[in-house]
Design a protein that fits this description.
Blueprint lengths: L2 H5 L44 H26 L13 H9 L6 E3 L5 H7 L3 H8 L25 H13 L6 E6 L6 H13 L3 E7 L2 E2 L2 E2 L12 H4 L3 E6 L3 H16 L5 E6 L12 H4 L3 H8 L3 H12 L4 H24 L18 H11 L18 E4 L1 H15 L3 E5 L15 H5 L4 E3 L4 H13 L3 E5 L10 H8 L2 H4 L8 E7 L14 H5 L5 E3 L4 H13 L3 E7 L8 E3 L12 E4 L4 E5 L4 H15 L3 E5 L2 E3 L3 H11 L2 E8 L4 H12 L9 E5 L7 H7 L3 H12 L2
Parallel strand pairs: 1-2, 2-3, 3-7, 6-7, 9-10, 9-11, 11-12, 12-14, 13-14, 17-18, 17-20, 20-21
Antiparallel strand pairs: 4-5, 8-15, 13-19, 16-18
Amino acid sequence: MTESEFTKTSGTDAVPRIFSEADFKFAKAEEVLYQRIAPDGTLKGKEPTLAPRDLMRFYEQLVFGRVFDEKATNMSTLREIGTYAPGKGQEGGQVGFVNALSKGDWYVPMYRDAAGMLAFGMPASKLLQYWGGDERGMQIPDDLNMLPLAVPVATQLPHAVGIAMARRLQGEKSVTFVCTGDGGTSKGDFHEAMNFAGVYDLPVVFGIENNQWALSVKRNRQTAAKTIAQKAVAYGFEGILVDGNDVLASFEATKYAVEKARRGGGPTLIEYSTYRLGPHTTAELVSNKLKAPEEVAEWEKRSPITRFEAYLRSRGLLDDRGKEAVAQAAQKKMEEAIATYRSIAVPDPSVMFDYMYSSLTPRLIEERASAFGGGSVPISSLPEPTATGGRPGVNIRNAVNMALREGMQRDKNVVIFGEDVGKNGGVFQVTRGLQDEFGPERVFDTPLAELGIAGLFVGLSMGGMVPVAEFQFEGFTVPAFDQIFGHVARMRNRTRGRYAPRGVLRFPYGAGVRAPEHHSDSPEAYYAHTPGLKVIIPSNPYDAKGLLSSALQDPDPVIFMEPKRLYDSPKTDVPEEAYSIPIGKAKVVREGGEITLVSYGAMMVPTLQAADALKSERSVSAEVLDLRTVSPLDFAAVLASVQKTGRLVIVHEAPLTLGLGAEIAATVADKALDYLKAPVRRVTGFDTVVPLARLEDHYIPNKDRVMKAASDLLSY
């Protein structure tokens, strides 16, 4: 078929419908721009239904937002606060959209939203405190449904989707509003959040503050589309382009979207066309100099404050005296905020440890005491479960399924989601039958978007749910790592405990099943190296159920890694009754006195095989320790065993360099060197990618490699 035949549109022949920008019936964005107050203050259309006191409140918030911005910029220049992201010129959209929200609604701001956050009720002194380098500034007041501002661009968008879903699951009629800039629409977070919101038809409104510049890159280099608003159509919902320097138009457009969402009408994307009059941040000023002076001058004429002033004067609501009174009140309020900020004492440095977890881990207690003094807080040692017997012949996949079912029965806020976890039961059938039992609202499939899954996890947790996210393979967690590292692990700390994510991120890991590329890695070190996460890796069905039960009830976010090589074997008896295994506690699975073998997960198989061979072939009594939790790691158990045996072999499947074995070896050298009779030996994967099937077995540590390492130490 020729090109002309392919594209012809007349006649009855079967021809494709080719979608293009031409389907949007406008030539320029200005043709579809919603505007109520022209730059000269002239009202378009009918008078708003807002009361005069509401209009004056808008004006006062606009003025105070500008005063705060200018003062904060100046304080940053003088190094009284740190780097600050000015929002001068963008106050109209922010004051407009915040006032469209009702009590109970949620606001998820971006880092340039000072005016919006202040209008929503955030104390100015706390904003200064945050930009002044004090995490306490983002301890959101209890009466505000607002997340802390997000510095990583657009990463907050999936959080809003999760909050909206959580509140709907809990029967609320609240709406979540979230915003980012035009640069943020180039991020995967934007597209995945929009797609999730459309798929689940959620009560969320996306605000795009199109200030025409992303640092030094103009808007037309972010997208070739005529508008950003039209992107909503691709995700199945409405988009609106509004004059973001018109506070009234911004309010009315947002009010429409919010009330529509509250009625069950789904999401909306609103593009607020505005302009950033200041620099990207006070840390760099070069980008601002790239703007053409005539461009800046033109946008200054469209100032949201002067235009609204003109409108209020035309209504008889504002005169010179009233304007001066508002200005003086804003200045006084700012001076009081600055005085409060300056009076805040520098926090005790030891508090940096206090919000990483719900309670201090043994390692954190030790580090804090060493650096800042103070006694060590004793860690209570939870007992091992005594439950025995139960269902015979259970493998790890079934044990995990049992724990998930038990957790969902115990807590109605537990929800399971991920790729193919519903009717299909997951690619490894771990969630099989759960959707039939608990329904598609509590066990649901997601689009194929791992970043979105992790971002949804954050929002669901912030909204009061206990999310359980499944990733199909460990390699698929890499796109999600930005969310896991930047938000799942840090939210408790960066909000000083105001928001504390909990829940479980599950995924199979490891080699040995002849999987394709990117399906066979052991990334536990990435997660164990990330403060704020707990990392669990079971090696048998009994532990898998008990550890996951603990994870589902733990107040901290947990990474739960399931050794896919052991999904089907071994099989053991697993009690039907509820039981929990303490997180952070290793288990001696074989008593011995001559050498210690430490491992976890799938590598417990060759480790135990080596212990058996040492006993039968050399009459050597090897003590075998299963770590079970790799963060926090039970160093006390390792040290106790090494002090008894004097020799240590550490076995893990991940690469040698900077693996968990290195940290264990360093700790033993630091605290038990005098007990060692031989150097510490590590048996690990190589510092290569995991090879494909034909060479896979040569990569994975086996019994013979463990035996050789142990024999070398015994002969040292």
